[in-house]
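S1.2 Input.
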Amino acid sequence: MYIQNGKVLRHEGIGGDYRLLSLELPAIAAAAGPGQFLHLRVALLHDAVLRRPFSICGARDGAVDMLYKTVGRGTAAMEALQPGQTVSVMGPLGNGFPLPLRHGARPVLVAGGYGVAPLSFLAGRLGRPGDVFVGGAKAADILCADIFEKLGWTVHVATEDGSLGTPGLVTAPLDSWLEGLTGPELPEFFACGPNGMLKVVGDRASARGANAWLSLDRHMGCGVGACLACVQRIRRDGQEVLARVCKEGPVFEAREVVWTE
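S1.3 Output.
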């Protein structure tokens, strides 16, 4: 884990309320893996004490990319960041998705909204393309589809209002795809999004005896496991224990997660 002042290289809107922020962070970029996150201090929010966590959506050539949606005071303040300014960053933090891909597995990515961010990073590191399912409330919430396509992935889209792709939740085209799945390869699932979606993906994987790696989203205070604000009940070695999402996660295998909500 490093603490660096990252220079803003690029900061722009990518549609709707979403923005892409690219920071010059050589040490973090070299160490980052898909599923890990950054902890940013929002310098323009003067009364903010805690940093904000953001998934890493890309790391290369000394730069780290993150995708965010303007949803509150912190992200609204971040919109004012300009190229050349610096941001204090901790990272890379947490345990990400397991690599390399298990031999003989067929990768299946499932993303809800800006949960697509760590999965776009993962797609370039898995070593082979597969199928990716991207869902959102409306067409403007469908992100990174072009990135997946350039990498050779087959992209399936669903929107709740029917404005793009299959109408409804992203699990609808996933279920249709699973019904038609043939061949000897066992799918291996990687997912990031709302809890309800993650639970469904885990259930589908378990029914097939497949692994599903779920990236959980929890409110994080310190980002390093000290404050215990982001605990999740999991099942390990036959016992239920509390795990820190920022430290032991954010990625857990689906059969570990004890859903209580």
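S1.4 Remarks. The first helix runs from residue 26 to 31.
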